[in-house]
Records
---
Amino acid sequence: MKKNKPQSTQDMLTEEELRMIKKSVDSDREQRRRLAHYDNSDKAKLVRYVKKNRIFAVVCVILIACVIVTLCLCAAFVIKKMANRENKDDFTIILGDDSYTAKYKDIMRDGILYVDMRRIAEYTGLTVTGSATSVKFTYDDDNYLRFENGSDEAVINGNMVELGGTATVTARICEIPYDFLTKAVGDGLKFTLDRTTNTVKIQRRMYATEDDDVFIPKEIHFYSDAFTVLMGITQVDDDYKYEYSIDVSAFLSSIDPDNAEDYLILANKQNPLGADYTPTDLKSLEINPNSSREMNLRSDAATALSAMILAMRADGITDVFVTSAYRSYSYQEKLFEGYIADRMESGMTREEAEAAVLEFSARPGTSEHQTGLCLDFMTTQMSDLDESFEETAAFRWLSANAHKYGFILRYPSDKVSTTGYKYEPWHYRFVGRNAATEIYESGICLEEYLELN
Ligand SMILES: [Zn+2]
């Protein structure tokens, strides 16, 4: 509206104009009144509306919240699933400076990761003994692990515990759960598993010596503390103290026979066997490499010998053979009389000849070979049966292992006065595993053993 300020009569409003202005002002008031009314009415409507629909609104808000939460959970699940997606790549097993690759499916079974204990033993220098189906890993007398093929149990220092998986033992591998090993080994080894790269790292822990520059591997200790012991240390498995290098299960009933006393016959100069003493269970030697000659021993002795020769062969000794086994009274008599006759022909009296022959040959009936329980070894490098056998790998092997197969060195160099025979490194006698082990461990000879028992 035009701004008019009445200042003179010329400026005074006419009646008509004043009426119009009043009307207009009234109209504005009415409009404001109406507007105000309408505003109040809308607010009230809205309040009523809101009140009426509050429950609906709350339900809506809850539903929307639910949808949001569900979406968030789904997203988290997908992210987690993607993060946890199992890496099925080949594994790299790092042992010290060496490493090898293993296929996922070969070493991951039923969610359990397996490692090859034979390889770890090679890396850590553990002694491996046993057979193709049962293996023992030794650090020292108090620290060893034992596994059986197909077994879900293991032995830690004599205590039987749950393996947490199933061992696979063959002549080449010994697969055991990785988790078992990490729990059984003390701080001598450090284990690292990385599933993002499928890497298993096993390292020997080292410690610095006094001059700091020299690092020495820590000792390896095995512990059963982290396991529930199923069977205590008192349950000693007898076979394991013998540590065979082949599976002897098929030979054991002969190596360690029930009738062991039958094999403790004493035949020496003071205790001759009669002319009619002939074993009834002689058996031809089935395994005698490098020899085609037919030879016999009593059945159990022959079987135990087979095991021993197979074990020697497994340990790389292939040049050994049996040159003499059972000899009958009549054969010994023929030999002995032949030697005497030779010497008597060259002018000796019967007495002189006998004295000379007894230096190297037994009088009939006093030869232990008549028992069918002993034998003489030679190697293909030897031309005669003599003390040079002592220089062979076969002799060194026998010196350490023969007792495990039931054999003893019958005429040791320090027992000449007791046995009545000079040192014979080649002559081995079967007495069964128990007696052989006792004789071996206490450093006695058969005469002394029989005296004590
Ligand atoms: Zn002999």
---
Amino acid sequence: MRSLVCAQCHVEYYFKGDNKYVTFPWDKGMNADDIEKYYDTVQFADYVHKLSRTPIIKAQHPDYEVFELGIHAQRGVSCADCHMPYKSQGGIKYTDHHISSPLANINNTCQVCHREGEAVLAKNVYDRQDYVFNLRNRLEKQLAKVHLMAKFGWDNGAQETEMKPILQLIRKSQWRWDFITASHGAAFHAPIESQRVLGDGMYYAMQAEQGINDWILKRCNRQVRNA
Ligand code: HEC
Ligand code: HEC
Ligand code: HEC
């Protein structure tokens, strides 16, 4: 309950159908791949990208879903353990409702369970954020590049059937980038899962680049033959 109370809002959802019914896309599972399968099955897109014409799934904030895949969740630690530390006043113990960064109060958050010093614990958090944000930034650049390359294809007469598999790869890549980027705290909540998802995102973006390069090569060969 001390996590589910937060999961009322800190989750992925979408507005289903014409009635815009708030729906959790969890029928096939709750990780990035399973949620993507759900959206692919119902052929959902939040919008079509203006340059590449990719049907994009926009992640909301799958904080709870990603958190659940980290070691703290797996050992039964709840959101409130870190974000709502205990206080006491007049002999009464209660949880702090001023929800903020656990690093603002390491003594009453991390150190309830860990014996390391404040600097070490803060560094543990910052190190994980650095690894994840580095990979995220690289993926971001690669994604921007393939959107532009896809536009180049369209501008130069690429056919729908040629572009479809490439746009599918861009959709997969951007979903993975967004899933982690929009999941607040993911880098610390579940660093391994975050890197797995971003790594897959990079893999799909590289494949998309390869796809467009193949198309360009094919087009050049045709022009040489026709000349
Ligand atoms: C009713 C919806 C709702 C619930 C329930 C909820 N949150 Fe939030 N939370 C939000 C929204 C919306 C924001 C962004 C607020 C903003 O940007 O001003 C937010 C922001 C935050 C932040 C960032 C705060 C900051 O100072 O930057 C943290 C941390 C957070 N929530 C943790 C939690 C935790 C932990 C729980 C459960 C104990 C929880 N939230 C329950 C909606 C909710
Ligand atoms: C083991 C401790 C721990 C648990 C458990 C935990 N968090 Fe966090 N959370 C953190 C830390 C550390 C950060 C990064 C804070 C920072 O960078 O200052 C963070 C960041 C966040 C942020 C981003 C805050 C911001 O200002 O950007 C949100 C939102 C959040 N957590 C929500 C949750 C929710 C919801 C849960 C449960 C599903 C949860 N957290 C469980 C430690 C925890
Ligand atoms: C309610 C207890 C609890 C709280 C609070 C807590 N942890 Fe943990 N932490 C654990 C447990 C349990 C593990 C898993 C260790 C194991 O099973 O050997 C763990 C694992 C870790 C690990 C190693 C796993 C990894 O992700 O690499 C780090 C680092 C860590 N915690 C840092 C923190 C920090 C920083 C905070 C405060 C923001 C914090 N913990 C808050 C209980 C807690």
---
Amino acid sequence: MKKQVIILGNGIAGITLAVLLQRKGIPFVLLHREGEKQPFALGETLPPSAMQFLNELKLLSIFEENAYRKTYGYHSMWGNSRVTDINFFHQNPYKNGLKINKHQTLEKLRELIKDNMISYQKGLEVIHEVYGNTVVLGKNEGVKIIQGKILIDATGRNRTVLQKLKIQNEIHDELVAVSCHIPKIQHPKLTHEVYVESFKEGWGIVSALNETENICTIFTHKGHEILSQLKEVSQWKSALAETVYLKDFLQETNQAKLKGGNANSSVASQIAGSNWLAIGDAAMSFDPLSSHGITNAIYTSAKAAEAIEKKLNFADSEAFPEYGKTMQTIFKQYLHSKNNLYQQETRWKDAIFWKRFFTSYS
Ligand SMILES: Cc1cc2nc3c(=O)[nH]c(=O)nc-3n(C[C@H](O)[C@H](O)[C@H](O)COP(=O)(O)OP(=O)(O)OC[C@H]3O[C@@H](n4cnc5c(N)ncnc54)[C@H](O)[C@@H]3O)c2cc1C
């Protein structure tokens, strides 16, 4: 099989790029792993600033129709023990964000490009050459060979293509997340259904997923001793006993499912090559405190689609290097503002989690 573009990865970044290439009439194939499990719902929040961009890409209605709900603001207790009310009413032109139902949104987007998707079970080999890329899927008799001028890494934090191309990662911290779905309660002192609170061992966020469930995620550093308590849902309440409002959301239960994983900031040392690009988390992954992971996935896909069009249709040799440079600049700006945000919390400057933000960071 020969296609102009081969996309590896089936998340928001890969699917968005596929939809945009289809609209531009650029032949592509999207490769995904067979029988992938439905992802654990993280209930990601999309800020109002992303809505305008989605509208320009003519994707807003799909995201809106498949979201859990609209969000109109959030509360946070960060830097002091007062609750701040951040209201989107003053944002323009959109006065709301979205609580994303990623699974449902992806299902809808996949329907648009399903004829150009190929699943594979095991065995993925990438042969990268200056004049093109070959991907070999499967083993023995079931083998499929796909050739494409351009190869896209949209495999999220796995960075599968980049690993095969031996591109290094720049890792900026060791933030990890543990999430659990818990029965929904409405806190008597909070009006918005998203609440962020920092505490000595890290920070946490609780938000409403739907009518019956909240999701609570705790962020700390890899290896922190609080993680051993967070392994058991029954211990969350005691682990978070010193928090002001977070603890109120936790009820005695053993039922909730837990999901842990990396949530650190990292960037690929190279985001674009002569005939490959990385998009979404594969290019650069953001701390969820920024609420910009999904926006980044959509933005990098849109910029990658433009760069691919320039390269294929107008033989623009600068399109890929420019894409890489733009993304590296964005990542530097992001790191700066993320570190500033952490430095606004000075109450536990000497605690293991916080002191890293006051000593050395890049
Ligand atoms: C706890 C937590 C909370 C978050 N909260 C927010 C938030 O509030 N707002 C926000 O905007 N962002 C948030 N994010 C970040 C956001 O979820 C990600 O940035 C976004 O989903 C990245 O999309 P992606 O398509 O780049 O990667 P992914 O969603 O990781 O998709 C990658 C895809 O590639 C597939 N894949 C991986 N390896 C292979 C392989 N070898 N072969 C084929 N396929 C492969 C995966 O199965 C997956 O389908 C949060 C993240 C975490 C961890």
